[in-house]
Amino acid sequence: MDIYETRKQNLRDLIATMFERNQTAFAKATKIKPPQVNRWISGKAKETRSITECSARRIEKILNLPKNFLDRPRHGAKALNGNGCAAEQTQASYGPPRRADWPFAPVDQARFESLAPKGQAWALAKFAAAIEEAEREFDGRGKPAA
User: Model's pTM, two decimal places?
Assistant: First the structure.
């Protein structure tokens, strides 16, 4: 799969998981016109457009996703059918980590998992922002940054 197909598949999965398959909600959140979103993920070869480097980075920045998130192949991600609905979403591609991997002891994983996908996405975005702030405030040894 080339980079453009990877981005397309990841965008489909992202819309399915974070926006409950609602392309319009995704378009509104990212300030991208709905027809453009549809052209990116359309299954019709004549209407499909590639997600450029600039667009991919913009989406990642707006949604507080790690840089190059859309470029990474997702193990276990299933293909979507032609109308943009996920045939199957797997935990390996998105969603909370498995219990054995749960790194946030003060946070009850069951409470996190009980949130709607949008709530989980919001919480993960806040966590990503907190990590970035901690990196700015502290050096690698846990001491305040100079």
Answer: 0.53
